[in-house]
Design goal:
Radius of gyration: 15 Å
Helix content: 25-40%
Order of helices and strands: EHHEHE
CATH superfamily of one domain: Ribosomal protein L7/L12, C-terminal domain/Adaptor protein ClpS
Distance between the termini: 7 Å
Length: 89
């Protein structure tokens, strides 16, 4: 028997998802480096992985939207997506 529950809360965590790095991957890597604290090589490896890439997981919605805006300003297509809890059965 599978049980499903709906969790209702005010502050749902979000993931920062990079869908496309855009025309300037180095600028996106520099932007991600500034928000994550990673070295430039690691940041470039993260943003050039096969999309979509979850760059940051389970962070505050405000931070996720702000970081997505920073990446979009660098030329990428990034979104802040709510964390979905999968039913276990």
């Amino acid at each position: 028997m599978t049980l499903y529950a709906t969790l209702v809360c005010d502050n749902v965590d979000h993931d920062l998802v990079l869908h496309d790095v855009g025309p300037s991957p180095m600028e996106v890597a520099k932007a991600f480096r500034s928000m994550s604290g990673l070295g430039l090589w690691w940041a470039k490896q993260a943003v050039t992985a096969a999309p979509p890439v979850r760059l940051l997981e389970e962070i505050d919605e405000r931070d996720a939207r702000r970081f997505a805006g920073i990446l979009c300003a660098a030329g990428a297509w990034a979104t802040a997506e709510p964390v979905v809890l999968a039913g276990r059965g």
